[in-house]
Amino acid sequence: xxxxxxxxxxxxxxxxxDAAVASLPGARKPTYVLEPPRNVFDLGVKAVWEYRELLxxxxxxxxxxxxxxxxxxxxxxxxxPLLTTVVFTFVFGRLADIPSDGVPYPLLIFTALLPWNLFAxxxxxxxxxxxxxxxxxxxxxFPRLVLPLSSVLSPLVDFVVGFGVLIGMSFWYRSFPxxxxxxxxxxxxxxxxxxLAVVLWLASLNVRYRDVGHAIPFIVQxxxxxxxxxxxxxxxxxxxxxxxxxxxMAGVIEGFRWALLGKSHPDFRVxxxxxxxxxxxxxxxxxxxxxxxxxxxxIV
Length: 300
Known about the structure:
Blueprint: E1 2-6, H1 18-22, E2 31-35, H2 45-50, H3 52-67, H4 75-95, H5 105-126, H6 129-132, H7 134-139, H8 146-153, H9 156-173, H10 184-208, H11 211-225, H12 241-244, H13 248-261, H14 268-292, H15 296-299
Helix pairs in contact: 3-8, 4-5, 5-8, 5-9, 5-10, 5-11, 5-13, 8-10, 10-11, 10-13, 10-14, 13-14
């Protein structure tokens, strides 16, 4: 929404700051009018930049709340993916005997869990971000886009810690990436954009339909098993890979494994399909969020 300040003055000139205007004889305090964006394609990026300090503090708040009053604190970031890797390695690597494309199976799993945990954390926090900040939304004005955006960016702290663990595992297994590691920031960005696209839809719908918030954990769990987390993309028949890439996280995980495991080349069909789907999801999500945010304060 656009914020328009309309100083209403009965006598005397209009000028100076709000206090000066209010001190004039017969003057009244300025009135702030909230108007919907006049341009349907106004995505609110400029407004978010103007409120970047609020975005920073919301990110910092999410990080502090996550580990407040915990016994081992940030160590959960290390234990959770490591224990998940151990369980998946035993169940899928040993019992199910799923191939690992010639790389150690724990490394194959952890390389996929790194972007997946970033995505899942962003979905879990961002899907309920507007409802959980009802006190802020109903009392003051700020670009509502700041809420889901902060929820998507805050898990990056966990990602950086987890990436340090992956470096240690790479030395342990003597598996070092080549030049494709330079493309890793692009796949991190693709992960964040994928999460943002999904979060914008979920956060908007969750304001009106609270069932969405209850369904998010189930959606995340189901999504993980239809993504190549516990198996390599080569297990998918070649004829199905482009269609499989319509799952955006398939392209993300394939890109991470190419960049970090020294694969000769990724399946670019999967990555291309995933990138196209992210764009198709993100732009309408931004437009829908901007159109519905004007009703958040009334419903939430």
